[in-house]
Write a structure and sequence with these properties.
Elements lengths: L4 E4 L4 E4 L1 E4 L8 H10 L4 E4 L6 H14 L6 E5 L4 E3 L4 E3 L4 H15 L6 E5 L7 H12 L6 E4 L3 H14 L4 E6 L20 H9 L3 E5 L2 H4 L15 H5 L4 H16 L4 H10 L5 E6 L7 H10 L4 H8 L2
């Protein structure tokens, strides 16, 4: 069964509710994984910025050209990721207008395309946001990007950015990218500097009619509450410990009951719960997962309609 597609008004796109995320760390999965994703009806791709990720960008570009799918596919790339100064042994902050232009140009070249459907970037809260927003506006004005997203921006920073872009008449924010949207509640984010997807963020997304790209890997969803998680979800002890609360253990019991009643696995049900919100959510799935048994679970999760009654039964709200 093909992945369900949903309308994302802030983008003007109908996207499959699961987005493929290839990684340069697993280049051997690119072609077969992309072919599998295409067979499932997927039409959107996430390319992150850590480590450069040049191989994944080149592979996606070649694959889209070979399949003649560029105009029917949505490509999202992360830009302005911090670099590392080997000599000084410290990060290089790239939250700058210059980095916006550099990275957009680099991604266009690596992908072999004339435009990027969306670019997103992390925040540096102590840096002025206006130069970066105006640089993004210039890229949109000349057609090199079509939408803007943010990750780890506090709600008040998002609102200030929207106010500035509205007054300046430049491209505003359309999407929020997060690792922190989940059914269970972690005690801390995936990385210390990441921001929670809390009630204030949910209200901001709803009020501003934004969409969300949410990572739905095992370490983002608390699969360790159920076992059978992928090994990388235990790569760091804190990635397991952050789910270890009495509230989450009670939630896990309710997930198991509802999942069994619907003939689903706990992984399928938790992913489905993330995809079904009052704002549009597209789940980001690691491409290699589509070449394992998990693929069938993601496929089923895409199709589940998760009602408020279901959510109430799980969360007792």
């Amino acid at each position: 069964m093909p992945f369900r597609r949903i309308e994302v008004p802030s983008l003007g796109w109908q996207l499959s509710n699961l987005m493929a995320a290839p990684s340069s760390a697993a280049p051997e999965t690119h072609k077969d994984g992309l072919d599998a994703y295409h067979r499932l009806g997927g039409n959107c791709f996430h390319l992150h910025g850590e480590g450069g990720e040049t191989h994944s960008r080149e592979a996606i570009g070649r694959w889209l050209r070979h399949r003649s799918l560029r105009t029917r596919s949505f490509v999202c790339t992360q830009i302005c990721h911090d670099a590392w100064d080997d000599q000084r042994q410290c990060p290089i902050d790239r939250f700058t207008a210059e980095a916006v232009a550099e990275d957009v140009a680099a991604d266009l070249d690596l992908l072999g395309t004339h435009y990027l459907d969306l670019v997103y970037l992390d925040d540096t809260p102590d840096m002025p946001v206006e130069p970066v927003l105006e640089a993004l506006g210039r890229e949109a004005a000349i057609g090199r990007i079509r939408a803007v997203g943010v990750r780890n921006w506090a709600p008040e920073r998002i609102l200030a950015a929207i106010d500035h872009t509205t007054r300046a008449g430049v491209k505003g924010i359309s999407m929020v990218v997060t690792t922190e949207l989940s059914l269970a509640t972690p005690t801390q984010p995936l990385w210390p500097e990441y921001l929670p997807f809390d009630q204030a963020m949910r209200e901001t997304v709803r009020a501003q009619n934004l969409g969300v790209f949410a990572h739905v890997s095992d370490f983002n969803t608390g699969q360790c509450l159920f076992g059978n998680e992928v090994p990388v979800a235990r790569a760091r002890p804190e990635w397991v410990q952050r789910w270890s609360t009495s509230a989450n253990r009670k939630l896990a019991k309710r997930v198991r009951v509802l999942a069994e009643a619907r003939g689903l696995s706990p992984r399928t049900l938790t992913v489905a719960s993330i995809l079904c919100h009052s704002f549009p959510v597209i789940g980001i799935v690691p491409l290699p997962s589509l070449l394992t048994a998990q693929s069938a679970e993601y496929e089923r999760a895409s199709a589940v309609v998760f009602s408020e009654a279901d959510r109430s039964a799980l969360c007792e709200v």
